[in-house]
Amino acid sequence: MPPTARPLAILRKRARPPSQCRPYSSHPPQARLNLPIDFSTTPLLHHTSQSALSSPSLSPHIDTSTLPPSSKPSTTRLPLHSAINAALAHALGASPSVLLFGEDVAFGGVFRCSVNLLDTFGPERVFNTPLTEQGIVGFAIGVAMEGGKPVAEVQFADYVYPAFDQLVNEAAKVRYRAGRNGEGSQEEGRQVLEGWGDGGQSCGGLVVRMPSGGVGHGALYHSQSPESLFTHIPGLRVVLPRSPSQAKGLLLSSILTCPDPVLFLEPKTLYRAAVEHVPDAPYFLPLSTAEVLRPGNDITIISYGTPLYTCTAAIEAIEKDMKGVRCELIDLRTVYPWDRETVMESVKKTGKAVVVHESMVNAGVGAEVAASIQEQAFLRLEAPVKRIAGWSTHMGLAFERFNIPDVARIYDGIKQTLEY
């Protein structure tokens, strides 16, 4: 036998018979924890209009001034991509300084987030660009510095790297370089709503939207989660919504009121999976403010975006198996600058913390959160802070489900931390 054939012969001998193999990376038969998320029942979504309108995270921010006299706020059941479309439509209608552009944006976009906006607002405000991320973001920076509010779409977050220099060396530094770091810059950002203005030479109003994260079959170039690369850069804000209602409010704040450039990463697997009641009236959710989704006293779970759904499933299972345990779940919403106060208050109460995210564990968002907890809440900790994240490897086509934290991994991490 030739030497090169020996490894193949050994592999064939050791391989399981086809009847015992699963050529896919979904949950196995008889699984107890790693079951598909039921988006029709998850408590993270508003399944009724009353739930959305009475939510303490939404109702105080709904702009009732836009409603006819004596009428009450209403909702529409929307998937994530339609909620983003509604936010873009309101922003374009609210200010003539808002522009929307990117690859295939005028046609509705790959994920249909900009559908019909060209017909409504015209080709001067909604238009396609050449296939050049550096050019798209560079043009957007110029528009923002002239007082506009450009919303640039990078078709997939995996393609943002050619624009990295523009974002880090230009957009993030504009306000600092111009000496516009005072409180007045935010007011100047609001004034631009009335027209083009000069914006105080900042990049406030610049929003770079990009679909992000795993989708089950995206492989190397369509499933990356690059958010942590931008959380090292002062001057940028990095936002990841968990649901349609959150996406609408956070996107409107990013476009119309934020004095800083915003990277708005949209979990692509939720575009059609997450459907809920979304208020029809405009509302602006605060950036850099975390939200406690589930109160508890025994352990703090910190996450953002899609993993919040697997965290919820793991929490429900752990609370069923470990009687009396109550887990607190926090959605960061903005991962830079993130809400340290809310996280520290929770960890000082529970004494234990687990951070979960989809992107790679090395130098990820969880590393910064864990280090901050060790610095600011060390004397209250009863166990080491645990990070549960994507492995330090590239996203393989057939192995994506094994790379991203699943319910079983999160369950085990919570259990280990509780029993420490």
TrEMBL record:
The keyword Protein transport does not apply. PANTHER family: 2-OXOISOVALERATE DEHYDROGENASE SUBUNIT BETA, MITOCHONDRIAL (PTHR42980:SF1), 2-OXOISOVALERATE DEHYDROGENASE SUBUNIT BETA-RELATED (PTHR42980). It holds the Pfam family Transket_pyr. The lineage of its organism: Eukaryota, Fungi, Dikarya, Ascomycota, Pezizomycotina. Its cofactor is thiamine diphosphate. This is 3-methyl-2-oxobutanoate dehydrogenase (2-methylpropanoyl-transferring). Residues 78-273 form the Transketolase-like pyrimidine-binding domain. CDD domains: TPP_PYR_E1-PDHc-beta_like. GO terms for molecular function: branched-chain 2-oxo acid dehydrogenase activity. Residues 13-32, 50-77 are annotated as: Disordered. SMART domains: Transket_pyr. Keywords: Oxidoreductase.
